[in-house]
Amino acid sequence: MYNLIGAGLIVIGAGIGLGQIGGKAMEGIARQPEATSKITTAMIIIAALLEGLAFGALFLGK
Amino acid sequence: MRIAKKTIKFLTIATIAFFTATAFASGTDKKHDKQNDGGRVNTKEEVEAYILHHIKDAHDFSLFSYTNDEGERKHFGFPLPIIIWTSEGLVSFMSSEFHHNDDGHVIVEKNGLKFVKLHSKILELDKGAATVSFDETHHATNAHKVIDFSITKSVVGIIFVGFLLLFWFSRLAKQYKTKKIPTGFARVLEPLVLYVRDEIAKPNIGEKHYRRFTGYLLTVFFFIWVLNLSGLTPLGFNVTGQLAVTACLAIFTLVIYTISGNKAYWIHMLWMPGVPVLIRPVLAIIELAGALIIKPFSLLVRLFANISAGHIVVMSLIAIMFTLKESLGIVGATGLSLVLSFFITLIEVLVAFLQAYIFTMLSALFIGMAVADHSEAH
Fold it and tell me: Do B302 and A48 touch (CB under 8 A)?
């Protein structure tokens, strides 16, 4: 029961984080379309780090 | 035209070989412990058990199974060798001797020892025990684990993909000796190799050192990618969704960036310049934990969780066919399942590439941190 609540909290946190990353990347691309590939690479790296953190927490809480 | 002819010939031979092999390997066993419907997967609990069974590694390579009119369960697949280190030394036999039993009821006797298979694990019965007895949490009380070196389904997958990559890339490498541009399938591989080198290795490791590590990065990229894709075929591999496999890959990266770390890397890790002396030991603990535990752990858990979650989602959506049969009707449930699983499988093809890319990218990033020149001021 409690680990399900914890999983929900983790997913909320990861969702906020991913939303921030994705939204800011979109803004950046809209401002400077010629930097799209660089922004995308950086976005994927940061998203992957965040995802690793979230999955680690889910894995430990299981 | 010649390529098309060759492909058709290859496909024909492969199909014939496949059906001959499966025809010989097909086995029959009566399910005496399950209910009367012959072990069909119908209810939610059975679907859940089936998915969890699929996610795990298996000792036999089963392609599909069905129940005939007499209520017999027929399995199609290959038995794989079981090689275990027991209390009496090395023992090996074929997994077909378990007759696809996975709940410990079929006992195999070899070298005077008795073995059972329980939830994809081989257990050795204690001396004098005739059958397995369970406690209330369904753990065996009179059997113990053995060291398992078996050629399991995942090992078959790894060997298969290893040989495939060896074949593809040795042909690609050979073509550069005689031709300017590679032909055939190698033309598909060349841009991918260049992509890994120019977009992943070079910017993250730097012009000076990238050549040393490109081989490892290419290997790990294609290994993970092809294994991820083979997990989406009906062969039922879940190799990159095994913790042991992803942990091994993460340890390779850990060893590489730990060994190749230069002086500046270790100074920055153990005795950070530019901060007060009292804080330096604290920072050293954090940096060491980050480099030796958190980095490889995040690598291994990310790959494992993504691929396993993908498999669970695809199988759950396929199982809608059975679980929602009553409420939606057979046509409705099958249609819903078809549409949803089709689109999720398309997304999984993207995830297969993305996870290989991220693993390679982060490996390159960590290696780049270890070999970077710190001559510039900061």
Answer: yes
Quick check: B299 and A55 in contact, CB under 8 A? Answer: no
Helices (H), B260-378: 263-270, 280-289, 295-323, 325-371
Interface test with B, best of A51, A58, A60, A62 (most B CBs within 10 A): A51
Q: B62, B39 in Cβ contact below 8 A?
A: no
CB contact under 8 A, A59 and B305: yes
Where b means 16+ CB within 10 Å and e means fewer, B94-104 reads ebbbbbbbbeb
DSSP string covering B6-58: HHHHHHHHHHHHHHHHHHHH-EEE--SSS-TTTT---SHHHHHHHHHHHHS--
The DSSP bridge partners found for residue B115 are B108, B124
B141 or B293: which leads in pLDDT:
B293
Q: Is B282 exposed, middle or buried (0-12, 13-18, 19+ CB in 10 A)?
A: exposed
Complex ipTM over 0.95:
no
The per-residue pLDDT for B159 is 93
For residue A58, the chain B residues in CB contact (below 8 A) are 305
**Parallel, antiparallel or unpaired: strands B73-79 and B27-29:** antiparallel
Report pLDDT digits (tens) over B304-329. 988 988 898 898 898 888 888 888 88
Question: pTM of the entire structure?
Answer: 0.82
Read off the pLDDT of each residue in B230-239 and give the average, rounded to a whole number. 86
Closest approach of B357 to chain A, Cα-based (Å): 10
**Residue of higher predicted confidence among B135 and B252:** B252
- Per-residue pLDDT tens digits for B117-147: 877 788 887 777 777 777 777 777 777 788 8
Select from B199, B305, B358 the Cβ nearest to the Cβ of A48.
B358
Q: Taking the C-alpha atoms of B351, B211, B174 and B230 in order, what is their torsion angle to the nearest 10 degrees?
A: -20
Residue B101 has which token pair?
Answer: 């039993």
Report the residue count for chain A. Answer: 62
Structure tokens at B358: 């991220």
| Strands, sheet with B89-94, edge to edge from the N-terminal-most edge strand | B89-94, B81-86, B147-148
